[in-house]
Amino acid sequence: MGNLINEALSMGWMAMALLVGLLIYFQVSISDPVAKKRATFKTFIGIIAAFLMFVAIANYKNNFYGENRLLPVSLVMITATTFMLALYFTNLGALLKIGGFMFFVAAFLSGYGNWLPQVEGGFPPKEEKLDFSSMTPQQLADEGEKIIFGGIGQNKVQGAIGKGQCPLCHAFHQGMLGERAPNLIGLPERAGKERLEDPKYSKGKPAAREYAQKEAFPGSGTAENGQEYIAESHACPSCYVVAGYGVKGTNDKESPMPAIHKPPISLSLPELAAVDTWLYVREGREAPSYEEIIKSYEKFIPEADRPKQQEEKAAGPASALLADGSEPVDQIFAKAQCVSCHTIPGIPGATGTIGPKLEEGTNAPLRIKDKDYKGSAKSTPEYIMESIVDPSAYVVKPFPDNTMPKVFGQKLSAGALKKIVDYLSQVKAGAPPPKIS
Ligand code: HEC
Ligand code: HEC
To answer: Is the CB of 268 under 6 A from ligand 1?
Structure first.
């Protein structure tokens, strides 16, 4: 859009220069004094009108993206231009005057809309204070998109990720591969049908379920409808494991997905409601009401486990880091979800099996010596850094490529990366793990 306007503008300036040249040429060639006087006047008006028109377009272009209050100025200029052109092309005069009047009305209305609230609203702008419960479904969905992807409109951006961290594991669009976790497109549809009707789900009968966890907490019951299934998936991933996605060796009885309301992700119930609303709204479906969603979570998350209500805080900016490097290294591993995929000696909870055990003091030298190694690392720390910021530089056998997220180079501070590299360099097979610093 911006480019198009830019090109149109530069062509416009050229065309205008040409026009001015032509007009002056014609005028010089007129010999009758009266006709010459009229021609001079018309040329003058014509040039001013054309000039105003372009200034108007340029102004419109510059203010198009910001919600700028100068926008109506463009409309006023266009109005003036049309009136001037009416003087110039006397035959079309009436038409142009009507057109000009309509522009004037448009300018007045948009000026009214743009100016008034800012002038009259003497209150400081509402910042950071968000009440999820009183939002429209679209507003709530927008907050959900911010929590999942870090910003509105970010859902199609490769590597976009917000505090919910879901894109670390999940794909969200048709055709995208979901190797490490189910693609969440179509979730609202399948949640209430396929999933609940799966004999392995055994709707309403916790005792019959063969999973690591039978229910979220004793007596919490099981999902009765699609929204409850989604709430249960988030609060108690190991209550039902989508076939083929379980932790290796558990026969799909245990899920590698972290409970979303627990640290390090710790989404509050209102935030979870925003996430779920986005999952429905982005498919053009009607989401359950805010109250219904909250109730579904209350069924699976006991009062004591509910993160402090955070509905008043806006989701962090798109650039928010997963870890800033001030944390001890075990927290960095947890916050960045390395622990969900990797077993890391000495790090509590790091028992993942989706990727290799990170004994890099032993592994890294072997990797660099491998005949298939095409990366550029010369030392253990370099190899670890490369594996984190460019996981496809060398793919550890027998793991598939493109499973490890490629976002850590942007989502971890230099300090956090250094702590990770320092720690992993010291982890050796068969030796006691290094101390956490
Ligand atoms: C560390 C990886 C990981 C992260 C992070 C993660 N998930 Fe998952 N998720 C999985 C895996 C693996 C499964 C499949 C196993 C299971 O059913 O629990 C899954 C299952 C699900 C399901 C059930 C899907 C279905 O088709 O039935 C939902 C819903 C879901 N995740 C939502 C989310 C949301 C929303 C987030 C972010 C707030 C998130 N997940 C974060 C790995 C992850
Ligand atoms: C969604 C799962 C997943 C997450 C999250 C993940 N990894 Fe990985 N990682 C893998 C897989 C799979 C491999 C092996 C395939 C490859 O080399 O790309 C791997 C490979 C590695 C290797 C190379 C190991 C070796 O022995 O050569 C390192 C180092 C590593 N990951 C570190 C990390 C760190 C640090 C984090 C967190 C910041 C992290 N990974 C997060 C899945 C993951």
So the answer is: no
